[in-house]
Design goal:
By secondary structure, this protein is of the alpha/beta class. It folds into 2 domains: 285 residues, Alpha/Beta hydrolase fold, catalytic domain (Rossmann fold, 3-Layer(aba) Sandwich); 199 residues, no CATH class. The chain is built from 22 helices and 22 strands. Strands 3-4-8-10-9-11-12-15-18-21-22 form an 11-stranded mixed beta sheet, with helices on both faces. Strands 1-2-5 form a 3-stranded mixed beta sheet, with no helix packed on it. The protein has a two-stranded antiparallel sheet with strand order 6-7. The longest helix is centred in the C-terminal third of the chain and has 27 residues. 46% of the residues are buried.
Length: 591
């Protein structure tokens, strides 16, 4: 018997609602295996062996002391030593955050995690101690910084076992303080700080450097080469990578950086402390308003106010940090503090870094903003309240095209041009184009998501089986062969960059040659399946102005309102270019 379509939809809707109301149970914790016994600077640890790759895995290794009590809003301190053998098995350790839709084991919106969260995870091939002790085969290290607007996410979400075992390397992922715990500029903290690093409001960036310093001191125990570390990150994590690349204090901690869908915006000390106006584009409440919301006693000295701030509960601080009408804090950006970031802005640092920047890969996805637009009620409607449909397919596609092109112009072409002005700087650029999702009951995910934000992550980590929702519809089996081939190629390029300092032809020397960006001649690698044109170089070089000019003159828009909506979309996503967009916006759109 075949069910009629409406009944199938209603059943699926009921299942989705049930899943939202009752969290799934997380998988069983891995089992400790003595083959993974290692001695690091703070004591003995034992990890587990993964399935199916058979990698050695250590989860939640502390790399810094818990930033609680008097250590809240201070630079990270060394981990106290422990006695006995610590089991490092829990990939679920998180810093304070709200559960999102990808957290399928939690109630959506629940406050989860803890402040004692400065841990990292390590994956290696199955190395025996004898081969590690020889130190003749030290492996390259890939160090991953997760995304999530710097308010959400954790390193244990990403499985490093396949990169480690397929390409013979060590993979590390980290947690770092999020939201108001990671970036917080308040005069009471600054005036009572103990040292230079403690005076910086960029506590999360200090966490990242502390984790890299831990890698420098300890990774040889796992078979890794402390002098061959590549940092890579996605979205907010890519913003953090971009920041680390130009922080003088981070020099020498890594040999290369990969920026996946990053951004190069920063915040001034003043805006971080006093906030930015609502409607400015990068709305931010500011540290002073956060503390005022906690209602401290009046006339406290800086020392007493700092004590009050450190004694407040994490939950109270988080709630006080939420933006107006939101359930989360505004997205933190690196703060130009004169300590870590010494130039007026992050983009100024790229314009004149003052030292040679390590080799860089920077890229974006062709349809970045579709991941966000798919939840925009102005662009998308829900069939039966569940299944998304674009209100206007042409408008939906065109608006994402221009928003995403501006993202690329700012984060790839502009930065590549800046970096190639410096002698010796090697830059490799890419655009991820895969858009071969499936469909379900009329919802075309190829149109709705396409090569959207974060869609490259399963390709880099071979994470298709662990994709949190809709796996069979997002990654249909009938398209798996070419999809997997693209994933293997991307993993090979990433590993080659970490191993040789350039992606070249990949680890097997069998892929299309990925050439560096050249002055006055862009060299952008398009990453796609054969059905989408294959992996290929493009000499296309775009600017913010060229994208805006193309938008202003694009005849594919059938109505003026469609073009105006696209302009508004670009302006909303990238408030930094409002002055530039004003010169291209059709006059009718300003009415």
């Amino acid at each position: 018997m075949r069910l009629k379509l409406p009944l199938i939809v209603l059943i699926m809707g009921a299942l989705l609602l049930a899943a939202c109301q009752k969290p799934l149970q997380p998988p069983a914790k891995p089992v400790a295996d003595t083959k993974t016994l290692r001695h690091i600077e703070s004591g003995d640890i034992v990890g587990s062996i993964t399935s199916p790759a058979g990698a050695y895995q250590w989860a939640a290794i502390p790399y810094a002391a818990a930033p609680v009590g008097d250590l809240r809003w201070r630079a990270p301190r060394l981990v106290p030593a422990w006695q006995g053998i610590k089991e490092t098995l829990d990939l679920g350790v998180r810093c304070v955050q709200r559960a999102r839709t990808a957290d399928i084991y939690d109630d959506l919106g629940a406050l989860v995690g803890q402040e004692d969260c400065l841990v990292l995870n390590v994956w290696t091939p199955p190395l025996v101690k004898k081969s590690i002790a020889a130190e003749t085969q030290q492996l390259p290290v890939m160090f991953f910084i997760h995304g999530g607007s710097n308010v959400w996410g954790y390193g244990g979400q990403y499985d490093g076992q396949y990169l480690a075992t397929r390409h013979n390397m060590v993979v590390v992922s980290i947690n770092y303080r999020l939201g108001p715990f990671g970036w917080f500029a308040h005069s009471a903290l600054r005036n009572t700080a103990l040292s230079g690093p403690d005076q910086s409001p960029n506590f999360a960036n200090l966490d990242m450097m502390a984790a890299l310093e831990w890698v420098k001191r300890n990774i040889a125990v796992f078979g890794g080469d402390p002098d061959q570390v590549t940092i890579f990150g996605e979205s907010a994590g890519a913003h953090d990578v971009a920041s680390l690349l130009v922080i003088p204090r981070a020099r020498g901690l890594f040999k290369g950086g990969i920026i996946q869908s990053g951004y190069f915006t920063s915040r001034s000390f003043k805006d971080a402390e006093f906030g930015t106006p609502i409607g400015s584009g990068w709305d931010y409440k500011g540290a002073k308003a956060v503390i005022d919301a906690l209602d401290p006693p009046s006339d406290l000295t800086d020392m007493d106010l700092a004590t009050f701030m450190r004694e407040a509960s994490a939950a109270d601080i988080y709630v006080a940090s939420q933006e107006s009408g939101e359930t989360e804090p505004g997205s933190p950006l690196i703060i130009s503090d004169g300590i870590l970031l010494q130039q007026p802005s992050l983009e100024d640092a790229y314009q004149d870094p003052g030292f040679e920047i390590v080799p860089v890969i920077t890229g974006t996805n062709r349809d970045e903003t579709k991941l966000f637009n798919v939840t925009n009620d102005k662009l998308v409607k829900k069939f039966l309240g569940i299944l998304p449909r674009p209100r206007n397919a042409r408008q939906y596609a065109l608006q994402a095209e221009y928003e995403s092109a501006i993202w690329r112009a700012r984060s790839v072409d502009t930065q590549a041009r800046r970096l190639t002005q410096s002698p010796g700087s090697a830059v490799y650029a890419y655009r991820f184009d895969w858009d071969e999702e499936g469909s379900f009951l009329g919802s075309d995910f190829s149109l709705l998501l396409g090569a959207g934000h974060a869609m490259e992550l399963p390709f880099v980590f071979d994470g298709f089986d662990s994709f949190p929702v809709g796996n069979g519809h997002i990654f249909p089996e009938n398209r798996a062969r070419e999809r997997d081939a693209l994933s293997q190629a991307m993993m090979s390029y990433w590993a080659a960059f970490a191993t040789h300092g350039k992606p070249g032809r990949g680890m097997g020397d069998n892929l299309a040659l990925w050439q560096p960006w050249e002055k006055n001649q862009g060299q952008l690698m398009i990453l796609d399946t054969k059905a989408g044109g294959g992996i290929r170089l493009s000499s296309e070089d775009i600017t913010i102005e060229s994208v805006l000019d193309a938008l202003a003159n694009d005849s594919r828009f059938e109505k003026v309102i469609e073009k105006c909506l696209a302009f508004l979309g670009v302006r909303g996503w990238f408030p930094e270019i409002r002055a530039q967009i004003a010169n291209f916006e059709p006059p009718v759109c300003k009415q």
